[in-house]
Amino acid sequence: MERRVKRLRRQVWAGGHLQRFGTPNGMRENVWFVTLTYRGVDDWQPRHISKCLKAARRWCQLRRVPFRYLWVAELQQRGALHYHLAIWLPKRLQLPMFDKQGWWPHGMTHRVIARNAVGYLMKYLSKISPFHQFPKGVRLYGLGGLTQQARSICSWLNLPSWCKQRFGVGDLKTVAGRRVVRATGEILETMYRRVFQPAGMRLYPNGPLPARWADGPYSSIDCVSLHAGAS
After folding, report:
1. What are the Cα distances from residue 141, in Å, to 26, 107, 118, 132, 169?
2. Which end of the chain is more exposed for a tag (fewer CB within 10 A), N or C?
3. Between 2-17 and 148-157, two packed helices, what is the crossing angle to 10 degrees?
4. What are phi and psi of 161, to 5 degrees?
5. Which residues lie below 8 Å from residue 119, measured CB to CB, with a gap of 6+?
6. Pairing between strand 29-37 and 192-197?
7. Cα–Cα distance between 180 and 184 in angstroms, integer?
């Protein structure tokens, strides 16, 4: 659970800040912060959030704006699951109330314009601990509307450290659980081997550890195309 939460925090932080690359040039926008609450403690069902987002996406499509969002799940003190959702919209649009629209018929909703939506989401994530008992099968976060380059950065952030020391954003792809170099098709062997011992597990390097890039891991990003997605 601890590893899952660490990965979650990294993805949410990156996904939220990278949403700015999807903002068309010159467009002023608001970030709406929405809370979705259940009436009952045990009302959660796995498709509730996806159906809600599908309705919000349709609303955006009718207004010809991209649906750019980020959400996290949280457990309330009473034990009920609820969701915190950030949505990026042009200033000319006002996001409706989800419950009044029928998008969230499972309880109450609240929405405001947030100054630091990503910061709020990270605050809620800081409350998650390995002792929290989320419903079986629940997703802890979701995001959408990122540009291709932004998605590549999010994927790179969750690579093992030894991969990030050798390769930049977009240089690797994952095929059947193996890391593959896009340019050459080379399949990378794992950098460490696991040795199980009575006291636990130890990792031993299979070879010399790679030196970190002098130019930084992001040096392979095509900055022109990165910002072109926002135009």
Report:
1. 30, 20, 13, 15, 22
2. C
3. 150
4. -55, -40
5. none
6. unpaired
7. 8
Angle at 92 between CA 87 and CA 98, to 5 degrees: 40
Nearest C-alpha neighbor of 117 from the set 90, 71, 86? 86
The total of other beta-carbon atoms located within 10 Å of residue 58's CB is 11
Rounded distance, CA 179 to CA 155, Å?
A: 12
Q: What is the DSSP letter of 26?
A: T
Instruction: Name the token pair of 86.
Output: 């950030």
Residue 131 to residues 11, 83, 127, 166, 213, Cα–Cα distance (Å): 21, 19, 11, 35, 38
What does the buried/exposed string (b/e) look like for 128-145 if buried means 16 or more CB atoms within 10 Å of the residue's CB? beeeeeeeeeeebbbbbb
Whether the per-residue pLDDT at 116 is higher than 70: the answer is yes
Q: 81: which 2 tokens?
A: 């699951």
**Alpha-carbon gap, residue 9 to 126, rounded angstroms:** 8
Per DSSP (E only), the strands in the chain are 29-37, 68-75, 81-90, 109-114, 141-144, 172-175, 178-181, 192-197, 200-205
Write out pLDDT tens, residues 125-176: 777 765 567 878 888 899 999 988 888 888 888 888 888 888 888 899 888 8
- CA 218 to CA 130: how far, in whole Å? 32
